[in-house]
Design goal:
Shape: globular
CATH superfamily of the largest domain: P-loop containing nucleotide triphosphate hydrolases
Number of domains: 3
Radius of gyration: 29 Å
Low-confidence stretches: 455-478, 560-579, 585-592
Number of strands: 22
Strand content: 15-25%
Structural class: alpha/beta
CATH topology of the largest domain: Rossmann fold
Largest sheet: 7 strands, parallel
Helix content: 25-40%
Number of helices: 20
Distance between the termini: 78 Å
CATH architecture of the largest domain: 3-Layer(aba) Sandwich
């Protein structure tokens, strides 16, 4: 497939200079004859080339028959993106795409100097890229003139709605001219997106670029089963085994990002982090460090990494399992872009294997079940990289000849090779010890057969086996189980449904190892099986709870959860309506007088 003749000549030259020889499916679809001048509702995954797609799609609307833009004034196009990083990334893409056409691009994003943005708008811009909140701010202050707009593009519209920008989007679209083109790009098209399109688009042409399975065809998935306490060791060894040019490691919380970044930095990895608590300048510097090669690993949360595109990103590691299949697909879509191959590794503690199975089934993905790479495997990989280092086959330059002769005169070839080898090995962090535990593939039961519990896409549930076919029941606890205290109680609305996963994750145990959970007024006490108590306490001291503001400590010796006595009793608030003697209805939130609390 060659570049389409319907692309504006100036943009076609920019694409050719950038190395484009063919268009992706979404780029081809927006150039179809029926899409010319029409509103578009496009579903396309990240990494499909959609920034270039809407760039070439709106070019005829902005340029008309001209080959270059006139002197900039009020903006002709508005691009709206959910995050600062994505907005700035879109600006960079459009700058080279419209460079030969003389296009001037301005950005309006939160976290940047609003006065600088206002001066840029006063000087004039052909295209403005921004985030919903900052764009609305400029519109209400009269700094952003919407009167000349010919096209509005909503990039990752589903994410903007998920982040709560509906009101801002409706305000911005309401201020734009009615005769504009509206292009809406979204990974999925749920009801909320369909309603937005129906309200603000005119007979939009629906384009579905490719299926999710095709989008992730260049990504190899691996589910790496590990002991819970060896999760971080597995991450370190995975980084050493693949030795990717650029890697993103996804964590579920800011605290987890901070902890893992510190651990990797201490081990000698060149690593940066991305999380919501960082300033815009810190996040920009982190991304720039990845782009210019000063860092090779980025540890990030989902929101902070939304929409970012890093060059040569060959490896994605899910340090924490995603909470839903959409997040899994989005995270994984950071690699395997623009025809490049990529690898996605899910770190799966043994206690979470069923969760990983469900996640992959719902995402319609298949993953090879593998062990974490051990020390011998990493040493063999290092040996191959050293022996086949491209630098060894490069011819020596003229300016290097004199020093080479001096080295040969002073040292034997064996001494020079040994020094090179030692330096190469010293530059690589040492691998970690990993338990050599055989693992069975995901989806298989303990006997090696296929699981009888399958995810049903139609009902959204699971076909469960008969009770007699289930696995063994949880083990009973010994009477000398250890009691721990967690700093959340009834006043914090503590609930066992989310306390239990937190307890398990903090100490690297499974729910089979947790006994009684007693929620008190200001704390929660829980029991850990005696055989796991020492390991649980060691994990807490090493990693903490992983949750900000939450502490877990060993309860005082001999202490357990007290029986419910009067001093621990808190009447359950009831709310009902009564009628008094006069027939007046009133509300009561107190228990009836005279009733004693149960002890």
């Amino acid at each position: 497939m060659s570049l389409s003749a319907s692309i504006a000549p100036a943009l076609s030259g920019a694409l050719a200079a950038r190395g484009y020889t063919a268009l992706t499916s979404v780029q081809t679809a927006v150039l179809a004859p029926e899409a010319e001048g029409a509103d578009l509702l496009v579903s396309a995954q990240t990494g499909s080339g959609k920034t270039v797609a809407f760039g070439i799609a709106i070019a005829p609307t902005l340029l008309g028959d001209a080959e270059r833009f006139e002197t900039p004034g009020a903006p002709l196009a508005l691009i709206i993106a959910p995050t600062r990083e994505l907005a700035l990334q879109v600006r960079r893409e459009l700058e080279w795409l419209y460079a030969e056409a003389g296009g001037r691009i301005a950005s309006c994003v939160g976290g940047m100097d609003i006065r600088t943005e206002r001066r840029a708008l006063e000087r004039g811009a052909h295209i403005v890229v921004g985030t919903p909140g900052r764009l609305r701010d400029h519109i209400t202050r009269g700094a952003l003139d919407m009167s000349a707009l010919r096209a509005v593009v909503l990039d990752e519209a589903d994410e903007m709605l998920d982040l709560g920008f509906r009101e801002d989007l409706e305000f911005i679209l309401g201020e734009a001219p009615e005769d504009r083109r509206t292009l809406l790009f979204s990974a999925t098209v749920p009801r909320s997106i369909a309603e937005l399109a129906k309200r603000f688009q005119r007979d939009a042409l629906r384009i579905s670029a490719t299926s999710e399975k095709e989008q992730h065809g260049d990504i190899s998935y691996q589910a790496m089963l590990v002991e819970p306490r060896e999760r971080e060791n597995a991450i370190i060894n995975t980084l050493l085994f693949f030795d990717a040019q650029n890697t993103i490691v996804f964590c579920s919380t800011r605290e987890a990002v901070k902890h893992l970044t510190s651990r990797l930095s201490n081990r000698g990895f060149s690593v940066v982090s991305l999380s919501g608590e960082l300033s815009q300048a810190e996040r920009t510097n982190a991304l720039q460090a990845m782009r210019d090669g000063r860092a090779r690993i980025c540890v990030a949360t989902d929101v902070a990494a939304r929409g970012i595109d890093l060059p040569n990103l060959d490896l994605v590691i899910h340090a924490d399992l995603p909470s839903n299949p959409e997040t899994l697909l989005h995270r994984s879509g950071r690699t395997g872009r623009a025809g490049r191959k990529g690898t996605c590794v899910l770190i799966v503690p043994f206690s979470r294997r069923r969760s990983a199975e469900r996640l992959l089934q719902m995402a319609k993905l298949e993953a090879a079940t593998v062990n974490a790479p051990g020390i011998p495997a990493i040493q063999e990989k290092n040996r191959e990289r050293i022996l086949h280092d491209p630098a060894l086959s490069e011819a020596a330059g003229e300016d290097e000849q004199d020093l080479i002769k001096e080295l040969q005169a002073l040292y034997t070839p064996e001494q020079i090779a040994a020094a090179y080898l030692r330096r190469e090995l010293a530059a690589r962090p040492a691998p970690e010890e990993i338990s050599d535990v055989p693992v069975r593939p995901l989806g298989q039961d303990r006997k090696g057969g296929e699981r009888t519990s399958k995810y049903d896409q139609r009902t959204g549930g699971y076909d469960r086996p008969e009770r007699g076919e289930r696995g063994e029941r949880p083990a009973k606890f010994m009477e000398d189980g250890a009691w721990f205290s967690l700093s959340l109680g009834r006043k914090h609305r503590a609930d066992p449904r989310w306390l239990l996963p937190m307890i398990c994750k903090a100490g690297g145990v499974t729910k089979r190892d947790v006994g009684s959970i007693r929620i008190l007024e200001t704390e929660t006490r829980f029991e850990i099986a005696a055989s796991k108590a020492d390991d649980y306490l060691a994990n807490l001291r090493e990693r903490g709870t992983g949750e900000k503001g939450v502490t877990i400590r060993l309860a005082a010796e001999g202490a357990s959860a007290p029986r419910r006595q009067k001093e621990h009793f808190e009447p359950k608030a009831k709310s009902w309506k009564k009628k008094d003697g006069a027939g007046k209805t009133y509300r009561s939130d107190k228990p009836a007088k005279g009733k004693k609390p149960r002890s």
